[in-house]
Amino acid sequence: MSYDGLRSLLPKNDLLGFAVLALLLVVVLPLSLDIFRLNLVGKYLTYAFVALGLVLCWGYGGILSLGQGVFFGLGGYAMAMFLKLEASSPENTAIQSTPGIPDFMDWNQITELPWFWEPFNSLIFTVLAIVIIPSIFAYIIGVAMFKRRVGGVYFAIITQAVAAILTILIIGQQGYTGGVNGITDLRTLKGWDIRTDEAKYAFYFLCVFMLFVCLFIAQYVRKSKLGRLLVAMREMEDRVRFSGYDVSNFKIFVFCLGSAFAAIGGAMFTLQVGFMSPTFVGIVPSIEMVIFCAVGGRLSILGAVYGTLVVNWAKTTFSESFPELWLFAMGALFIAVVMAFPNGLAGLYNKYAAHHVEKLLGKKKGQSPDAKATVGTQGVAHERQ
Amino acid sequence: MSASNTDFVLAVEGLTVSFDGFKAVNDLSFYVDKDEIRVIVGPNGAGKTTVLDLICGRTKSTEGSIKFRNKELTKMKEHQIVRAGVGRKFQTPSIYGDLTVFENLEISFPRGRSVFGALAFKRDAEVLNRVSEVADMIFLSDLLESRADLLSHGQKQWLEIGMLLIQDPELLMLDEPVAGMSVSERRQTAELLRRITKDRSVIVIEHDMQFVAEIADKVTVLHQGKILAEGSAEEVKADPKVIEVYLGH
Predict the structure, then answer these.
(1) B-chain residues within 8 Å CB-CB of A231?
(2) CB-hemisphere CA count at 13 Å for A236?
(3) CATH number of the domain that B39 lies in?
(4) Does A117 have pLDDT greater than 90?
(5) Alpha helices by DSSP H, A119-246
(6) Which pTM value belongs to this model?
Protein backbone atom coordinates (compact mmCIF):
# COMPACT_ATOMS: atom_id res chain seq x y z
CA MET A 1 0.00 0.00 0.00
CA SER A 2 1.28 3.46 -0.84
CA TYR A 3 2.28 6.00 1.76
CA ASP A 4 -0.81 8.09 0.99
CA GLY A 5 -2.98 5.02 1.30
CA LEU A 6 -1.49 4.28 4.69
CA ARG A 7 -1.95 7.84 5.81
CA SER A 8 -5.58 7.90 4.87
CA LEU A 9 -6.04 4.54 6.61
CA LEU A 10 -4.31 5.74 9.76
CA PRO A 11 -4.50 9.51 10.17
CA LYS A 12 -2.22 10.98 12.80
CA ASN A 13 -4.62 10.69 15.71
CA ASP A 14 -5.48 7.07 14.98
CA LEU A 15 -1.83 6.25 14.43
CA LEU A 16 -1.07 7.67 17.85
CA GLY A 17 -3.86 5.60 19.36
CA PHE A 18 -2.60 2.41 17.75
CA ALA A 19 0.97 3.18 18.82
CA VAL A 20 0.01 3.84 22.44
CA LEU A 21 -1.98 0.62 22.61
CA ALA A 22 0.87 -1.34 21.02
CA LEU A 23 3.33 0.15 23.49
CA LEU A 24 1.07 -0.78 26.38
CA LEU A 25 0.42 -4.34 25.26
CA VAL A 26 3.81 -5.22 23.82
CA VAL A 27 6.17 -3.39 26.17
CA VAL A 28 4.63 -1.96 29.32
CA LEU A 29 2.44 -4.84 30.47
CA PRO A 30 4.88 -7.69 29.70
CA LEU A 31 7.65 -5.83 31.56
CA SER A 32 5.58 -4.86 34.56
CA LEU A 33 3.44 -7.95 35.17
CA ASP A 34 4.42 -11.46 36.24
CA ILE A 35 3.36 -14.26 33.89
CA PHE A 36 0.27 -15.10 35.96
CA ARG A 37 -1.07 -11.55 35.62
CA LEU A 38 0.08 -11.23 32.03
CA ASN A 39 -1.75 -14.44 31.19
CA LEU A 40 -4.85 -12.90 32.77
CA VAL A 41 -4.43 -9.83 30.57
CA GLY A 42 -4.09 -12.16 27.60
CA LYS A 43 -7.34 -13.80 28.59
CA TYR A 44 -9.06 -10.40 28.83
CA LEU A 45 -7.72 -9.49 25.43
CA THR A 46 -9.47 -12.47 23.89
CA TYR A 47 -12.76 -10.81 24.85
CA ALA A 48 -11.53 -7.63 23.17
CA PHE A 49 -11.80 -9.45 19.83
CA VAL A 50 -15.50 -9.85 20.51
CA ALA A 51 -15.91 -6.26 21.67
CA LEU A 52 -14.12 -5.10 18.53
CA GLY A 53 -16.56 -7.04 16.36
CA LEU A 54 -19.41 -5.49 18.33
CA VAL A 55 -18.07 -2.00 17.63
CA LEU A 56 -18.51 -2.68 13.93
CA CYS A 57 -21.82 -4.54 14.21
CA TRP A 58 -23.49 -2.54 16.92
CA GLY A 59 -21.71 0.81 17.08
CA TYR A 60 -21.41 1.32 13.35
CA GLY A 61 -24.09 -0.93 11.89
CA GLY A 62 -26.67 -0.65 14.68
CA ILE A 63 -26.98 -4.44 14.82
CA LEU A 64 -26.99 -5.46 18.47
CA SER A 65 -26.07 -9.10 18.84
CA LEU A 66 -26.52 -10.57 22.30
CA GLY A 67 -25.12 -13.89 21.16
CA GLN A 68 -21.50 -13.21 20.31
CA GLY A 69 -20.53 -15.87 22.87
CA VAL A 70 -21.71 -18.39 20.27
CA PHE A 71 -18.93 -17.42 17.88
CA PHE A 72 -16.36 -17.02 20.63
CA GLY A 73 -17.33 -20.52 21.69
CA LEU A 74 -17.21 -22.02 18.21
CA GLY A 75 -13.70 -20.66 17.68
CA GLY A 76 -12.63 -21.77 21.13
CA TYR A 77 -14.11 -25.24 20.77
CA ALA A 78 -12.49 -25.73 17.36
CA MET A 79 -9.10 -24.99 18.91
CA ALA A 80 -9.88 -27.13 21.95
CA MET A 81 -10.91 -30.09 19.79
CA PHE A 82 -7.54 -30.09 18.06
CA LEU A 83 -5.63 -29.83 21.33
CA LYS A 84 -7.81 -32.48 22.95
CA LEU A 85 -7.18 -34.94 20.16
CA GLU A 86 -3.46 -34.36 20.49
CA ALA A 87 -3.72 -34.90 24.25
CA SER A 88 -5.67 -38.13 23.69
CA SER A 89 -3.02 -40.17 21.96
CA PRO A 90 -3.38 -43.94 22.53
CA GLU A 91 -0.35 -43.85 24.87
CA ASN A 92 -1.81 -41.08 27.01
CA THR A 93 -5.18 -42.77 27.20
CA ALA A 94 -4.07 -46.36 27.55
CA ILE A 95 -6.13 -46.92 30.71
CA GLN A 96 -9.41 -46.09 28.91
CA SER A 97 -11.65 -48.85 27.63
CA THR A 98 -11.22 -47.28 24.18
CA PRO A 99 -7.75 -45.73 24.03
CA GLY A 100 -7.11 -42.90 21.58
CA ILE A 101 -10.34 -40.98 22.04
CA PRO A 102 -10.89 -38.01 24.39
CA ASP A 103 -11.46 -39.09 27.98
CA PHE A 104 -14.98 -37.65 28.30
CA MET A 105 -16.11 -39.75 25.34
CA ASP A 106 -14.80 -42.83 27.04
CA TRP A 107 -16.70 -41.93 30.22
CA ASN A 108 -19.85 -41.62 28.13
CA GLN A 109 -19.47 -45.08 26.61
CA ILE A 110 -18.56 -43.77 23.19
CA THR A 111 -16.24 -46.22 21.49
CA GLU A 112 -15.34 -44.45 18.30
CA LEU A 113 -14.26 -40.92 17.45
CA PRO A 114 -17.36 -39.10 16.02
CA TRP A 115 -17.04 -38.14 12.34
CA PHE A 116 -17.07 -34.40 13.02
CA TRP A 117 -14.07 -34.74 15.31
CA GLU A 118 -11.95 -36.48 12.66
CA PRO A 119 -10.87 -33.40 10.66
CA PHE A 120 -9.66 -31.70 13.85
CA ASN A 121 -6.65 -34.00 13.79
CA SER A 122 -5.27 -31.53 11.27
CA LEU A 123 -3.88 -28.22 12.53
CA ILE A 124 -4.39 -26.54 9.15
CA PHE A 125 -8.01 -27.61 9.07
CA THR A 126 -8.45 -26.38 12.64
CA VAL A 127 -6.97 -22.97 11.91
CA LEU A 128 -9.25 -22.57 8.90
CA ALA A 129 -12.23 -23.94 10.79
CA ILE A 130 -11.73 -21.39 13.59
CA VAL A 131 -12.53 -18.58 11.17
CA ILE A 132 -14.68 -20.28 8.56
CA ILE A 133 -17.16 -22.32 10.61
CA PRO A 134 -18.33 -19.38 12.78
CA SER A 135 -18.47 -17.16 9.68
CA ILE A 136 -20.67 -19.64 7.86
CA PHE A 137 -22.88 -19.97 10.90
CA ALA A 138 -23.13 -16.18 11.15
CA TYR A 139 -23.86 -16.04 7.43
CA ILE A 140 -26.76 -18.46 7.82
CA ILE A 141 -28.21 -16.50 10.74
CA GLY A 142 -27.60 -13.26 8.87
CA VAL A 143 -29.32 -14.39 5.69
CA ALA A 144 -32.26 -15.82 7.63
CA MET A 145 -32.71 -12.61 9.63
CA PHE A 146 -31.57 -9.68 7.52
CA LYS A 147 -33.08 -10.84 4.21
CA ARG A 148 -36.39 -10.90 6.06
CA ARG A 149 -35.62 -7.51 7.55
CA VAL A 150 -35.57 -8.74 11.10
CA GLY A 151 -33.61 -6.20 13.07
CA GLY A 152 -33.30 -4.27 16.31
CA VAL A 153 -34.67 -5.88 19.42
CA TYR A 154 -35.98 -8.93 17.57
CA PHE A 155 -32.55 -9.69 16.21
CA ALA A 156 -31.01 -9.24 19.65
CA ILE A 157 -33.51 -11.67 21.17
CA ILE A 158 -32.96 -14.25 18.44
CA THR A 159 -29.18 -14.13 18.87
CA GLN A 160 -29.71 -14.58 22.57
CA ALA A 161 -31.89 -17.61 21.87
CA VAL A 162 -29.16 -19.03 19.64
CA ALA A 163 -26.68 -18.61 22.49
CA ALA A 164 -29.05 -20.42 24.84
CA ILE A 165 -29.64 -23.22 22.34
CA LEU A 166 -25.97 -23.79 21.70
CA THR A 167 -25.23 -23.90 25.44
CA ILE A 168 -27.97 -26.44 26.00
CA LEU A 169 -26.77 -28.47 23.05
CA ILE A 170 -23.19 -28.54 24.32
CA ILE A 171 -24.24 -29.46 27.85
CA GLY A 172 -26.72 -32.06 26.65
CA GLN A 173 -24.36 -33.85 24.27
CA GLN A 174 -21.75 -34.63 26.88
CA GLY A 175 -20.26 -37.54 25.00
CA TYR A 176 -19.49 -35.41 21.96
CA THR A 177 -18.69 -32.06 23.54
CA GLY A 178 -17.43 -32.66 27.04
CA GLY A 179 -20.71 -31.33 28.44
CA VAL A 180 -20.82 -28.79 31.21
CA ASN A 181 -17.15 -29.30 32.11
CA GLY A 182 -16.10 -28.36 28.64
CA ILE A 183 -12.98 -29.64 26.98
CA THR A 184 -10.25 -29.72 29.59
CA ASP A 185 -6.81 -31.13 30.23
CA LEU A 186 -5.23 -29.75 27.06
CA ARG A 187 -1.52 -30.34 27.00
CA THR A 188 0.47 -29.83 23.85
CA LEU A 189 0.39 -28.11 20.50
CA LYS A 190 2.33 -30.16 17.96
CA GLY A 191 4.29 -31.62 20.82
CA TRP A 192 5.01 -28.27 22.46
CA ASP A 193 3.77 -28.06 26.05
CA ILE A 194 1.27 -25.20 26.23
CA ARG A 195 1.25 -25.09 30.02
CA THR A 196 4.75 -23.71 30.42
CA ASP A 197 5.52 -20.05 31.09
CA GLU A 198 7.39 -19.87 27.83
CA ALA A 199 4.26 -20.99 25.93
CA LYS A 200 2.13 -18.52 27.87
CA TYR A 201 4.40 -15.67 26.84
CA ALA A 202 4.32 -16.85 23.24
CA PHE A 203 0.52 -17.10 23.21
CA TYR A 204 0.18 -13.69 24.83
CA PHE A 205 2.19 -12.12 22.02
CA LEU A 206 0.36 -14.17 19.40
CA CYS A 207 -2.89 -12.91 20.89
CA VAL A 208 -1.70 -9.28 20.79
CA PHE A 209 -0.53 -9.75 17.22
CA MET A 210 -3.87 -11.23 16.11
CA LEU A 211 -5.70 -8.45 17.93
CA PHE A 212 -3.76 -5.89 15.93
CA VAL A 213 -4.49 -7.76 12.71
CA CYS A 214 -8.18 -7.54 13.55
CA LEU A 215 -7.82 -3.90 14.60
CA PHE A 216 -6.28 -3.05 11.23
CA ILE A 217 -9.06 -4.88 9.39
CA ALA A 218 -11.62 -3.01 11.48
CA GLN A 219 -9.86 0.28 10.80
CA TYR A 220 -9.87 -0.45 7.08
CA VAL A 221 -13.60 -1.22 7.12
CA ARG A 222 -14.32 1.85 9.22
CA LYS A 223 -12.43 4.11 6.84
CA SER A 224 -13.88 2.59 3.68
CA LYS A 225 -17.16 3.57 2.11
CA LEU A 226 -18.60 0.48 3.76
CA GLY A 227 -17.96 2.06 7.16
CA ARG A 228 -19.83 5.19 6.17
CA LEU A 229 -22.62 3.08 4.70
CA LEU A 230 -23.01 1.30 8.02
CA VAL A 231 -23.43 4.64 9.78
CA ALA A 232 -25.87 5.71 7.09
CA MET A 233 -27.87 2.50 7.47
CA ARG A 234 -28.01 2.85 11.21
CA GLU A 235 -29.57 6.26 10.77
CA MET A 236 -31.72 6.03 7.69
CA GLU A 237 -31.91 2.52 6.40
CA ASP A 238 -34.58 3.26 3.80
CA ARG A 239 -32.55 6.03 2.24
CA VAL A 240 -29.63 3.63 1.75
CA ARG A 241 -31.94 1.03 0.27
CA PHE A 242 -33.42 3.60 -2.08
CA SER A 243 -29.96 4.68 -3.11
CA GLY A 244 -29.53 1.31 -4.79
CA TYR A 245 -27.90 -0.76 -2.06
CA ASP A 246 -29.00 -4.17 -0.90
CA VAL A 247 -28.91 -3.27 2.79
CA SER A 248 -29.13 -6.85 4.04
CA ASN A 249 -25.84 -7.81 2.34
CA PHE A 250 -23.98 -5.15 4.28
CA LYS A 251 -25.50 -6.29 7.54
CA ILE A 252 -24.64 -9.91 6.78
CA PHE A 253 -21.07 -8.93 5.96
CA VAL A 254 -20.46 -6.98 9.13
CA PHE A 255 -22.13 -9.63 11.27
CA CYS A 256 -19.90 -12.32 9.72
CA LEU A 257 -16.83 -10.16 10.21
CA GLY A 258 -17.70 -9.54 13.87
CA SER A 259 -18.27 -13.25 14.32
CA ALA A 260 -14.94 -14.15 12.75
CA PHE A 261 -13.21 -11.73 15.13
CA ALA A 262 -15.03 -13.31 18.07
CA ALA A 263 -14.01 -16.77 16.91
CA ILE A 264 -10.33 -15.81 16.70
CA GLY A 265 -10.69 -14.47 20.23
CA GLY A 266 -12.21 -17.77 21.32
CA ALA A 267 -9.29 -19.75 19.86
CA MET A 268 -6.81 -17.43 21.61
CA PHE A 269 -8.74 -18.00 24.83
CA THR A 270 -8.40 -21.77 24.57
CA LEU A 271 -4.68 -21.50 23.90
CA GLN A 272 -4.01 -19.22 26.86
CA VAL A 273 -6.44 -20.55 29.42
CA GLY A 274 -6.06 -24.19 28.50
CA PHE A 275 -9.70 -25.21 28.30
CA MET A 276 -13.05 -24.27 26.77
CA SER A 277 -16.45 -24.68 28.34
CA PRO A 278 -20.08 -23.72 27.76
CA THR A 279 -19.76 -20.98 30.40
CA PHE A 280 -18.21 -18.80 27.69
CA VAL A 281 -20.91 -19.47 25.13
CA GLY A 282 -24.19 -18.63 26.81
CA ILE A 283 -26.29 -15.57 27.44
CA VAL A 284 -24.38 -14.12 30.39
CA PRO A 285 -20.95 -13.97 28.72
CA SER A 286 -22.55 -12.66 25.54
CA ILE A 287 -24.12 -9.78 27.44
CA GLU A 288 -20.88 -9.15 29.34
CA MET A 289 -19.15 -8.73 26.01
CA VAL A 290 -21.67 -6.09 25.00
CA ILE A 291 -20.91 -4.30 28.26
CA PHE A 292 -17.16 -4.34 27.50
CA CYS A 293 -17.94 -2.76 24.16
CA ALA A 294 -20.29 -0.16 25.67
CA VAL A 295 -17.83 0.80 28.39
CA GLY A 296 -15.09 1.28 25.83
CA GLY A 297 -17.38 3.33 23.64
CA ARG A 298 -19.25 1.56 20.94
CA LEU A 299 -17.90 3.71 18.14
CA SER A 300 -14.27 3.31 19.04
CA ILE A 301 -12.30 0.24 18.00
CA LEU A 302 -9.47 1.07 20.41
CA GLY A 303 -12.03 1.90 23.08
CA ALA A 304 -13.28 -1.67 22.80
CA VAL A 305 -9.86 -2.95 23.85
CA TYR A 306 -9.54 -0.54 26.77
CA GLY A 307 -13.14 -1.13 27.84
CA THR A 308 -12.56 -4.86 27.92
CA LEU A 309 -9.34 -4.51 29.90
CA VAL A 310 -10.82 -2.08 32.42
CA VAL A 311 -14.02 -4.01 33.09
CA ASN A 312 -12.19 -7.31 33.40
CA TRP A 313 -9.51 -5.86 35.60
CA ALA A 314 -12.28 -4.43 37.80
CA LYS A 315 -14.05 -7.77 37.74
CA THR A 316 -10.97 -9.64 38.89
CA THR A 317 -10.07 -7.10 41.58
CA PHE A 318 -13.62 -6.70 42.75
CA SER A 319 -14.54 -10.36 42.84
CA GLU A 320 -11.35 -11.22 44.69
CA SER A 321 -12.66 -9.10 47.58
CA PHE A 322 -16.46 -9.17 47.17
CA PRO A 323 -17.32 -12.13 44.96
CA GLU A 324 -21.06 -11.92 45.61
CA LEU A 325 -21.30 -8.24 44.67
CA TRP A 326 -19.70 -8.38 41.25
CA LEU A 327 -22.85 -9.03 39.23
CA PHE A 328 -24.57 -6.07 40.88
CA ALA A 329 -21.57 -3.89 40.15
CA MET A 330 -21.64 -5.03 36.55
CA GLY A 331 -25.33 -4.19 36.22
CA ALA A 332 -24.77 -0.81 37.81
CA LEU A 333 -21.87 -0.19 35.46
CA PHE A 334 -24.01 -0.90 32.41
CA ILE A 335 -26.74 1.43 33.64
CA ALA A 336 -24.14 4.10 34.41
CA VAL A 337 -22.65 3.82 30.95
CA VAL A 338 -26.01 4.16 29.27
CA MET A 339 -27.19 7.03 31.46
CA ALA A 340 -24.07 9.02 32.21
CA PHE A 341 -21.54 8.42 29.48
CA PRO A 342 -23.14 6.76 26.47
CA ASN A 343 -19.93 7.10 24.44
CA GLY A 344 -17.96 5.16 27.00
CA LEU A 345 -14.28 5.68 27.67
CA ALA A 346 -13.68 6.86 24.11
CA GLY A 347 -16.35 9.52 24.59
CA LEU A 348 -14.76 10.70 27.82
CA TYR A 349 -11.38 10.78 26.14
CA ASN A 350 -12.69 12.84 23.25
CA LYS A 351 -14.45 15.23 25.56
CA TYR A 352 -11.75 15.87 28.12
CA ALA A 353 -8.40 14.64 26.89
CA ALA A 354 -8.35 14.72 23.11
CA HIS A 355 -7.72 18.44 22.71
CA HIS A 356 -4.84 18.38 25.19
CA VAL A 357 -3.24 15.59 23.22
CA GLU A 358 -3.87 17.45 20.00
CA LYS A 359 -2.24 20.55 21.45
CA LEU A 360 0.80 18.54 22.47
CA LEU A 361 1.03 16.99 19.04
CA GLY A 362 0.48 20.31 17.35
CA LYS A 363 3.32 21.94 19.30
CA LYS A 364 5.71 19.20 18.45
CA LYS A 365 5.07 18.62 14.79
CA GLY A 366 2.75 21.34 13.59
CA GLN A 367 -0.65 20.28 12.43
CA SER A 368 -1.39 19.56 8.81
CA PRO A 369 -4.80 20.94 7.85
CA ASP A 370 -6.11 17.65 6.52
CA ALA A 371 -5.33 15.76 9.72
CA LYS A 372 -7.17 18.46 11.61
CA ALA A 373 -10.27 18.03 9.47
CA THR A 374 -10.34 14.28 9.98
CA VAL A 375 -9.88 14.61 13.70
CA GLY A 376 -12.62 17.20 13.81
CA THR A 377 -15.26 15.10 12.11
CA GLN A 378 -14.34 12.07 14.15
CA GLY A 379 -14.57 13.98 17.36
CA VAL A 380 -18.05 15.11 16.45
CA ALA A 381 -19.09 11.64 15.42
CA HIS A 382 -18.02 10.37 18.82
CA GLU A 383 -19.78 13.17 20.65
CA ARG A 384 -23.03 12.36 18.93
CA GLN A 385 -23.57 8.72 19.59
CA MET B 1 -52.54 -8.95 -15.25
CA SER B 2 -49.83 -8.16 -17.73
CA ALA B 3 -49.72 -4.84 -19.50
CA SER B 4 -48.64 -4.29 -23.05
CA ASN B 5 -45.43 -2.48 -23.96
CA THR B 6 -45.62 1.24 -24.61
CA ASP B 7 -43.46 4.24 -25.43
CA PHE B 8 -44.09 5.75 -22.03
CA VAL B 9 -41.34 5.96 -19.44
CA LEU B 10 -43.77 4.82 -16.81
CA ALA B 11 -46.98 2.92 -17.43
CA VAL B 12 -49.15 2.14 -14.42
CA GLU B 13 -52.11 -0.10 -15.22
CA GLY B 14 -54.86 -1.46 -13.00
CA LEU B 15 -52.76 -0.86 -9.89
CA THR B 16 -54.49 -1.87 -6.68
CA VAL B 17 -53.23 -2.27 -3.16
CA SER B 18 -55.39 -3.22 -0.23
CA PHE B 19 -54.44 -3.09 3.43
CA ASP B 20 -56.76 -5.45 5.33
CA GLY B 21 -59.48 -4.94 2.77
CA PHE B 22 -59.08 -1.17 2.59
CA LYS B 23 -58.09 -0.23 -0.93
CA ALA B 24 -55.61 2.61 -0.57
CA VAL B 25 -55.07 2.58 -4.32
CA ASN B 26 -57.88 1.23 -6.43
CA ASP B 27 -57.53 0.14 -10.06
CA LEU B 28 -55.28 3.07 -10.89
CA SER B 29 -53.92 3.63 -14.39
CA PHE B 30 -51.76 6.47 -15.62
CA TYR B 31 -48.87 7.04 -17.98
CA VAL B 32 -45.88 9.34 -17.73
CA ASP B 33 -44.12 10.50 -20.88
CA LYS B 34 -40.44 11.00 -21.44
CA ASP B 35 -39.29 14.36 -19.94
CA GLU B 36 -42.75 15.01 -18.54
CA ILE B 37 -43.30 16.64 -15.17
CA ARG B 38 -46.33 15.05 -13.62
CA VAL B 39 -47.78 16.43 -10.43
CA ILE B 40 -50.06 14.36 -8.27
CA VAL B 41 -52.41 16.30 -6.00
CA GLY B 42 -55.30 15.28 -3.82
CA PRO B 43 -56.69 15.50 -0.30
CA ASN B 44 -55.03 13.75 2.62
CA GLY B 45 -55.39 9.98 2.45
CA ALA B 46 -56.00 10.00 -1.29
CA GLY B 47 -53.17 7.49 -1.77
CA LYS B 48 -50.56 9.82 -3.25
CA THR B 49 -47.61 8.66 -1.20
CA THR B 50 -48.79 5.06 -1.51
CA VAL B 51 -48.52 5.35 -5.30
CA LEU B 52 -44.89 6.42 -4.97
CA ASP B 53 -44.29 3.62 -2.46
CA LEU B 54 -45.69 1.14 -4.95
CA ILE B 55 -43.57 2.40 -7.82
CA CYS B 56 -40.33 2.30 -5.87
CA GLY B 57 -41.11 -1.09 -4.36
CA ARG B 58 -41.52 -0.06 -0.74
CA THR B 59 -45.08 -1.41 -0.77
CA LYS B 60 -46.01 -4.50 -2.74
CA SER B 61 -49.04 -4.17 -4.97
CA THR B 62 -52.01 -6.49 -4.64
CA GLU B 63 -52.85 -6.32 -8.31
CA GLY B 64 -51.86 -4.52 -11.47
CA SER B 65 -48.71 -3.63 -13.28
CA ILE B 66 -46.07 -0.91 -13.13
CA LYS B 67 -43.81 -0.76 -16.13
CA PHE B 68 -40.76 1.43 -16.26
CA ARG B 69 -39.33 1.53 -19.77
CA ASN B 70 -41.37 -1.62 -20.36
CA LYS B 71 -39.72 -3.37 -17.43
CA GLU B 72 -42.11 -4.74 -14.84
CA LEU B 73 -41.26 -3.21 -11.45
CA THR B 74 -43.79 -4.95 -9.22
CA LYS B 75 -41.64 -8.08 -8.91
CA MET B 76 -38.35 -6.28 -8.38
CA LYS B 77 -36.57 -5.45 -5.12
CA GLU B 78 -36.11 -1.83 -4.04
CA HIS B 79 -32.41 -1.60 -4.84
CA GLN B 80 -32.97 -3.17 -8.25
CA ILE B 81 -35.65 -0.61 -9.04
CA VAL B 82 -33.23 2.17 -8.07
CA ARG B 83 -30.51 0.66 -10.23
CA ALA B 84 -32.99 0.47 -13.12
CA GLY B 85 -33.23 4.27 -12.94
CA VAL B 86 -35.97 5.27 -10.52
CA GLY B 87 -35.06 7.74 -7.77
CA ARG B 88 -37.33 8.66 -4.91
CA LYS B 89 -37.29 11.47 -2.38
CA PHE B 90 -39.16 10.97 0.84
CA GLN B 91 -41.58 13.42 2.39
CA THR B 92 -39.45 14.17 5.42
CA PRO B 93 -35.84 14.83 4.53
CA SER B 94 -34.03 11.50 4.73
CA ILE B 95 -30.34 12.19 4.99
CA TYR B 96 -27.52 10.81 7.10
CA GLY B 97 -27.08 13.32 9.89
CA ASP B 98 -23.88 11.81 11.28
CA LEU B 99 -22.11 12.12 7.95
CA THR B 100 -20.93 15.24 6.17
CA VAL B 101 -22.72 16.70 3.16
CA PHE B 102 -19.87 15.41 1.02
CA GLU B 103 -20.21 11.89 2.41
CA ASN B 104 -23.97 11.98 1.95
CA LEU B 105 -23.52 12.72 -1.73
CA GLU B 106 -20.64 10.30 -2.11
CA ILE B 107 -22.66 7.40 -0.74
CA SER B 108 -25.34 8.14 -3.30
CA PHE B 109 -22.83 8.10 -6.17
CA PRO B 110 -23.77 5.05 -8.22
CA ARG B 111 -20.58 3.03 -7.93
CA GLY B 112 -19.37 0.38 -5.48
CA ARG B 113 -22.85 -0.69 -4.50
CA SER B 114 -21.91 -4.25 -3.57
CA VAL B 115 -20.21 -5.18 -0.30
CA PHE B 116 -16.80 -5.64 -1.86
CA GLY B 117 -17.34 -2.74 -4.21
CA ALA B 118 -17.88 -0.55 -1.16
CA LEU B 119 -14.74 -1.90 0.51
CA ALA B 120 -12.67 -1.14 -2.58
CA PHE B 121 -14.34 2.20 -3.35
CA LYS B 122 -11.87 5.02 -3.99
CA ARG B 123 -12.52 8.75 -3.90
CA ASP B 124 -11.22 9.46 -7.39
CA ALA B 125 -11.48 12.56 -9.55
CA GLU B 126 -14.76 11.40 -11.08
CA VAL B 127 -16.41 11.19 -7.68
CA LEU B 128 -15.00 14.52 -6.50
CA ASN B 129 -16.07 16.30 -9.67
CA ARG B 130 -19.55 14.87 -9.65
CA VAL B 131 -20.04 15.67 -5.97
CA SER B 132 -18.93 19.27 -6.39
CA GLU B 133 -21.05 19.64 -9.52
CA VAL B 134 -24.17 18.44 -7.71
CA ALA B 135 -23.33 20.44 -4.59
CA ASP B 136 -23.24 23.53 -6.77
CA MET B 137 -26.63 22.75 -8.16
CA ILE B 138 -28.23 22.31 -4.74
CA PHE B 139 -26.66 25.46 -3.24
CA LEU B 140 -24.50 23.52 -0.75
CA SER B 141 -20.99 24.01 -2.17
CA ASP B 142 -19.80 25.87 0.91
CA LEU B 143 -21.17 23.30 3.30
CA LEU B 144 -19.59 20.12 1.93
CA GLU B 145 -17.63 19.47 5.12
CA SER B 146 -20.52 20.23 7.50
CA ARG B 147 -22.35 17.50 9.26
CA ALA B 148 -25.68 17.03 7.53
CA ASP B 149 -27.80 17.33 10.66
CA LEU B 150 -26.56 20.89 11.15
CA LEU B 151 -28.31 21.95 7.93
CA SER B 152 -31.59 23.85 7.93
CA HIS B 153 -34.76 22.02 6.95
CA GLY B 154 -34.69 23.47 3.45
CA GLN B 155 -31.04 22.61 2.97
CA LYS B 156 -31.74 19.04 4.04
CA GLN B 157 -34.46 18.82 1.41
CA TRP B 158 -31.99 20.07 -1.20
CA LEU B 159 -29.36 17.64 -0.02
CA GLU B 160 -31.75 14.75 -0.50
CA ILE B 161 -32.63 16.01 -3.96
CA GLY B 162 -28.89 16.21 -4.64
CA MET B 163 -28.44 12.63 -3.45
CA LEU B 164 -30.94 11.61 -6.11
CA LEU B 165 -29.40 13.79 -8.80
CA ILE B 166 -26.01 12.21 -8.36
CA GLN B 167 -27.62 8.90 -9.32
CA ASP B 168 -28.91 10.53 -12.49
CA PRO B 169 -32.24 8.66 -12.48
CA GLU B 170 -34.45 8.60 -15.53
CA LEU B 171 -37.55 8.88 -13.37
CA LEU B 172 -37.42 11.10 -10.33
CA MET B 173 -40.16 11.00 -7.71
CA LEU B 174 -40.44 13.82 -5.20
CA ASP B 175 -42.81 13.73 -2.27
CA GLU B 176 -43.71 17.30 -1.26
CA PRO B 177 -40.31 18.82 -2.01
CA VAL B 178 -41.20 22.31 -0.77
CA ALA B 179 -43.16 21.37 2.35
CA GLY B 180 -41.99 23.37 5.34
CA MET B 181 -39.81 25.68 3.29
CA SER B 182 -39.58 29.44 3.60
CA VAL B 183 -40.74 31.64 0.72
CA SER B 184 -37.24 32.27 -0.56
CA GLU B 185 -36.30 28.61 -0.24
CA ARG B 186 -39.45 27.75 -2.15
CA ARG B 187 -38.44 30.06 -4.97
CA GLN B 188 -34.96 28.58 -5.10
CA THR B 189 -36.41 25.07 -5.07
CA ALA B 190 -38.76 25.84 -7.95
CA GLU B 191 -35.78 27.06 -9.91
CA LEU B 192 -33.80 24.00 -8.93
CA LEU B 193 -36.61 21.70 -10.02
CA ARG B 194 -36.89 23.44 -13.36
CA ARG B 195 -33.19 22.89 -13.92
CA ILE B 196 -33.01 19.27 -12.84
CA THR B 197 -36.13 18.13 -14.62
CA LYS B 198 -34.54 18.60 -18.01
CA ASP B 199 -33.96 15.25 -19.70
CA ARG B 200 -35.80 13.21 -17.16
CA SER B 201 -39.34 12.40 -16.16
CA VAL B 202 -40.48 13.60 -12.80
CA ILE B 203 -43.43 12.77 -10.58
CA VAL B 204 -44.07 15.33 -7.86
CA ILE B 205 -46.58 15.20 -5.04
CA GLU B 206 -47.51 18.71 -4.02
CA HIS B 207 -50.26 20.63 -2.26
CA ASP B 208 -49.41 24.19 -3.14
CA MET B 209 -51.54 24.82 -6.26
CA GLN B 210 -49.57 27.89 -7.22
CA PHE B 211 -46.36 25.88 -7.14
CA VAL B 212 -48.11 23.11 -9.06
CA ALA B 213 -49.20 25.48 -11.82
CA GLU B 214 -45.65 26.72 -12.04
CA ILE B 215 -43.96 23.39 -12.67
CA ALA B 216 -46.52 20.86 -13.93
CA ASP B 217 -46.86 19.59 -17.47
CA LYS B 218 -49.81 17.52 -16.41
CA VAL B 219 -51.69 17.15 -13.14
CA THR B 220 -53.34 14.02 -11.79
CA VAL B 221 -55.87 14.45 -9.01
CA LEU B 222 -56.26 11.44 -6.75
CA HIS B 223 -59.22 10.88 -4.51
CA GLN B 224 -59.84 7.75 -2.42
CA GLY B 225 -57.24 5.81 -4.36
CA LYS B 226 -58.72 6.62 -7.74
CA ILE B 227 -58.10 9.24 -10.39
CA LEU B 228 -60.61 12.03 -10.09
CA ALA B 229 -59.27 14.18 -12.90
CA GLU B 230 -56.27 14.49 -15.14
CA GLY B 231 -55.08 17.32 -17.38
CA SER B 232 -53.18 20.59 -17.37
CA ALA B 233 -53.11 22.63 -14.17
CA GLU B 234 -55.69 25.03 -15.63
CA GLU B 235 -58.09 22.27 -16.64
CA VAL B 236 -57.83 20.59 -13.29
CA LYS B 237 -58.36 23.80 -11.35
CA ALA B 238 -61.52 24.45 -13.32
CA ASP B 239 -62.91 20.94 -12.88
CA PRO B 240 -66.02 21.07 -10.64
CA LYS B 241 -65.34 17.63 -9.16
CA VAL B 242 -61.87 18.72 -8.11
CA ILE B 243 -63.19 21.92 -6.59
CA GLU B 244 -65.76 19.88 -4.71
CA VAL B 245 -63.42 17.37 -3.05
CA TYR B 246 -60.10 19.17 -2.95
CA LEU B 247 -59.81 22.82 -3.81
CA GLY B 248 -63.15 24.03 -2.55
CA HIS B 249 -62.37 23.94 1.15
Answers:
(1) 96, 98-99
(2) 22
(3) 3.40.50.300
(4) yes
(5) 123-146, 152-172, 174-177, 197-223, 225-241
(6) 0.90
